[in-house]
Amino acid sequence: RTISSNIGSKTLKEKDSRKVFTNEGSSSLNTYNLPPVSSGLDYIFMLENAGSLKVQTAGTNIIRIGDLVTTAGGYVVSSGIGSSLEIIGINTSAWIALSYLGSWQLI
User: Fold this and answer.
1) Taking CA atoms, which of 6, 9, 14, 100 is between 20 and 30 Å from 48?
2) With bands split at pLDDT 50, 70 and 90, how would you rate the model's confidence at 19?
């Protein structure tokens, strides 16, 4: 898989599916804006450095981690080094966590 780091904010595209995104090189908030959810899209996020990593949904999409769910148009955020999150689109409205490590806050 391709591994990509980001400082600041980055809007992901469908072509970024199956890539790994980190906060390497950043010590502040990194935001990844998801594209509208579509069945089969898959993204992985990892915190390598101090700071926070935020994954923002598009429109009224949601992210579900276990039995927890964001609000429509919400986001997840973590500030724990070593935290990771893999999400997959299952329809046109929901991202589901296939796996996660560390603590993620759902907003």
Assistant:
1) 14
2) very high
* Pairwise CA distance, residues 49 & 33, whole Å: 19
Residue 104: CB atoms within 10 Å:
23
Q: What's the rounded Cα separation, in Å, for the pair 57 and 91?
A: 14
DSSP secondary structure, 15-39, as one string: GGTTEEEE-TT-SSEEEEEPPSP-T
User: What is the pTM (predicted TM-score) of this model?
Assistant: 0.97
Q: What is the pLDDT of residues 54-95, one digit of tens each?
A: 999 999 999 999 999 999 999 999 999 999 999 999 999 999
Q: Which of 53, 42, 47, 30 is nearest to 105 (CA)?
A: 53
Q: What does the buried/exposed string (b/e) look like for 16-45 if buried means 16 or more CB atoms within 10 Å of the residue's CB?
A: beeeebbbeebeeebbbebbebeeebebbb
Burial class (CB in 10 A: 0-12, 13-18, 19+), 78: buried
pLDDT at 70: 98
